[in-house]
Amino acid sequence: MSVTSLEFQAHAAEAAPEEAIEGRSQWKLTWRRLLRDKMAIASIAVILVMVVLAIAAPLFVSLTGHGPEQAFTNSGTTSSGAPVPPGTHGFFLGTDYIGRDLMIRTLYGARISLFVGILTTAIATVAGVAVGLVAGYFGGWVDTVLARFIDTALAFPLIVLALALAAILGPSLAIVIAVISFFSWAGISRIVRGQTLSIKEKEYIEAARSLGAGPWRIMFIDILPNLLGPVLVLATLYIPTAVVFEATLSFLGLGIPPPTPSWGNILGEAQNYYSVAWWYVVFPAAALLVTTLAFNLLGDGIRDAMDPRTERIFAAGRKRRKNKPKAATEPGALPTLTVSELGE
Amino acid sequence: MSDTLRDAASPAPLEAAMEDDVLVRVDNLVKHFPVRGGGIIRRTVGQVQAVDGVSLVVRRGQTLGLVGETGSGKSTLARCVAGLIPVTSGKVTFEGRDITNLSRRAMRPFRREIQMIFQDPYGSLNPRRRVGAIIGDPFAVHKTASGAARKKAVQELMERVGLNPEHFNRFPAEFSGGQRQRIGVARALALRPKLIICDEPVSALDVSIQAQVLNLLADLQSDFGLSYLFIAHDLEVVRHVSNNVSVMYLGRIAESGPKNQVYDTARHPYTVALLSAAPAADPDAAAQRRRIILTGDVPSPINPPSGCRFHPRCPKAQELCSQQEPALEVKPGDPAMHQTACHFPVQAGETLARVAGRERR
Question: Which stretches within chain A are classed as H helix?
Fold first, then answer.
């Protein structure tokens, strides 16, 4: 085998003029696949509408003249003291048990729910990624200590903790955020730790070490970009969990203290009135349902877009069903290969 | 045992004159990996003796080829020299300075002098980072260039290794295997190192691409005065690139010396067997040559054979081989640079190919 005789031809071929020089990043490809997913687009639209409504809630207050905690005992309640149905006296979605505007309260509830959902997920993601990366990368006793810590956090009885904290400190927004964050980071940590354990054995990490890169540079420049995909999916799926968790705590009276509206405490109040005022339950519950469903579907969409293999499996299945009636070979077509009279 | 090895490593009179030439000296290097039991206490139940007393020398501007089968400890040795894994015992000196088991901070200046090219062109490039960032990494880590200067340096490197410099914004997935290996070469070259450790740099490439990458490495060597520690299991590749060759077997050096000495007058039965097993491109030659078929597998490095580690598979093995470890030394009739670790070195004209009737097992 003479190696020298082969000339160095690669450069000429590679230097051929090309149109697109900018490489398409994983994110761009993911985004393009996501844009083809109708369900994900619908979810994004719903979430955007929710966010815009939540931000614009004070605008609705000035339009209707109804404050979120303002009780209209005359126009907002019937003569027997029950809530008025949607459409009466300028209350588009009716009123609650003391004559407050349910639409305004639901909109303000969206502010709390989205704020708590996004903030706690952000805290949990940052903490979870940091703990998971450190535990996975350093290993040894650091990993042992942090992994036990993760297990402890996952095993904690959350309602009991929330109950105890609310009983001692009194229910408040800060406690809600603290409790939800505390119960969310561990799940993210566990995933990140596992991913880190597998990524740190890759040769490109060894290459970075051979260049003299320190552990923090390797963790945040070399490993973290490889984790962002699963973390983004996880975070998107944690937002609705946090929203529901907040609603649960508020429903039980351990979360956002009244009179501040939150979907959970509105539903909590509505328990006693649903037989006479269906709107009291339906509208805040629908808001909660639509929001969490949209985030969940978006998370699924992102996951599908990140991992085109799963997408391709479904696409292949569809294509196969469509193409089935076609015959394998058309009659009368020339054979590709004919062998006859094979002799000695 | 250690005495004989140290003797082998100490500079012979002829080598002493060439001491200035020595870039890297590896002295009786040992790397054992502990094997832990599966129980709760996880106590150490054994040692994988990946590298067990290896000495070698890489000279300035030259290439030392390291051959051996899978599991012979070549890559472990490379990682020890590169300071990527701690050494159990022994010494690695670079330009006369001891770099064995330095802390990361103390090792930092040497990182600029010693670089590595990895085997897998897919695994050695971070899939989420752009090529420009990957090749610019050495500048970023050592803070030698930033911004526009770094980009210019990266593009010069890409040009030098035969990549289109306009492609710095692409991702590794958009390149072929050969191009990816060029990216790896550019990254290793960035800090203008003196030594590049090539860990099977062409094993994962197809043959025509291998030639291109090998030619590139040869060009770079003459342009920048690089020294290579070149690891491969392909004997012909090693013959093509090396000045000196060391043959490893189960964590030890079986034979080492100038390329032509080792290839043309191999002394160690293992080297002879390896050479006879290499495929020949000429079918007539392939039909005529007599292959030495080694029996059995490579023994476990957790529990290596006593004496000469090759003795259970060696066609020339005798009683002595299982009892006494042969020293790596110059055999009678060989030049001073050609060392063999064998009690019964193969003589010129001797044939080792076993005839069916003489099968020992």
Answer: 10-14, 26-35, 38-55, 57-64, 102-138, 140-155, 158-169, 173-199, 203-211, 215-217, 224-251, 263-270, 278-306, 308-323
Compare CB distances from B169 to A23, A217, A225 and report the shortest one's residue: A23
Determine the residue type at A209: R
The second-level CATH assignment, the architecture, of B14-113+193-358 is 3-Layer(aba) Sandwich (3.40)
pLDDT at B286: 67
Is pLDDT at A317 greater than 60 in this prediction?
Answer: no
Please tell me the predicted confidence (pLDDT) of residue B245.
92
Provide the chain B residues 263-292 that lie in CB contact (below 8 A) with chain A: 281
pTM of the model: 0.76
Asked if the model's pLDDT at residue A223 lies above 60, the reply is yes
State the ipTM, two decimals: 0.80
Taking residues B226-230, report their average pLDDT: 92
With contacts defined as CB-CB under 8 Å, which chain B residues touch A223?
A: none
Identify the pLDDT of residue A123: 93
Domain residue ranges in chain A: 30-308
Which chain B residue has its CA at the smallest distance from A218's CA? Answer: B141
Please write the tens of the pLDDT for every residue from A185-220: 888 899 999 999 998 888 899 889 888 888 899 998
In chain B, residues with a C-beta closer than 8 Å to the C-beta of A208 are: 126, 137, 141
**Which residues 174-213 in chain A show a CB within 8 A of chain B?**
202-204, 206-213
**Which of these, B83, B107, B66, B113, lies nearest to B234 by C-alpha position?**
B66
Domain extents in chain B? 14-113+193-358, 123-192
Residue B19 predicted with pLDDT over 70: no
> How near does any CA of chain B get to the CA of A110, in Å?
36
Q: Tell me the mean pLDDT in the region B184-208.
A: 89
Between the alpha carbon of residue B360 and those of residues B142, B313, B316, B318, the distances in Å are: 58, 10, 11, 12
B84 at the A interface (CB within 8 A)?
Answer: yes
Site from A26, A28, A141, A211 to mutate, B interface, most B CB atoms within 10 angstroms:
A211
Q: Kindly list the strands in the beta sheet with B44-59, ordered across the sheet, starting from the edge strand earlier in the chain.
A: B44-59, B22-36, B89-94, B97-98
- What would the mean pLDDT of B328-342 be, rounded to a whole number? 83
A-to-B residue pairs, Cβ atoms closer than 8 angstroms: 116
Contact A8 B207 (CB under 8 A): no
- Averaged pLDDT of chain B: 82
Q: Does domain A30-308 have CATH number 3.30.420.10?
A: no
Tell me whether A157 touches chain B (CB under 8 Å).
no
User: Does residue B63 sit at the A interface (CB-CB below 8 Å)?
Assistant: no
Rounded average pLDDT over B195-224: 89
A208 to chain B: closest CA residue:
B137
The Cα B185–Cα B163 span in angstroms is 11
